[in-house]
Amino acid sequence: MNENGNVFFEEIDPAEVEQSIAERQTKIIDVREVDEYNSGHIPSAKLIPLSEFAERFQEIDPEDSVILVCRSGKRSAMACEFLARQGYSKIKNMVGGMLAWQGDVEK
């Protein structure tokens, strides 16, 4: 966080996410709601809906590298900002969200 109170987190594109998953370097957290998640999600993604995020974020180990995902990238960016304010530093937001995802989808 800088002196203006702004928080920083990295962004990652979907192709880089696919590579990271293949190399088992990161965990995926899907912040969409249950019905969205059930309609199709990245295999191995853990669901923590944004509506429950403040109560459940401790389920994410601050030492893990984590990529947050939503439909378009906006809600996951809010989750990244929240985590950064809690002191998490190994977080990334997937740009474009599931709308941009070309990889495998699990239902």
How would you describe this structure to a colleague?
This is Rhodanese-like domain-containing protein. It holds the Pfam family Rhodanese. This protein has about 110 residues and is α/β, with parallel strands linked by helices. The chain has one domain: Rhodanese-like domain (Oxidized Rhodanese, domain 1). It is built from five helices and five strands, in the order βαβαβαβαβα. The protein has helices spanning about 15-20, 35-40, 55, 75-85, 95-100, and strands at about 10, 25-30, 45, 65-70, 90-95. A five-stranded parallel β-sheet has the order 1-5-4-2-3. β4, α4 and β5 (about 90-95) form a beta-alpha-beta unit. The model has no long low-confidence stretch (mean pLDDT about 95).
How many helices? The count is 5
Task: Flag low-confidence runs.
Answer: none
Proportion of residues in β-strands:
15-25%
Please state how the strands of the largest beta sheet are arranged side by side: 1-5-4-2-3
Quaternary status of these chains? single chain
CATH architecture: 3-Layer(aba) Sandwich
Question: How would you summarize this macromolecular structure in one to three sentences?
Answer:
The protein is of the alpha/beta class. It has helices at residues 14-22, 34-38, 53-56, 74-85, 97-100; strands at 10-12, 27-30, 46-47, 66-69, 91-94.
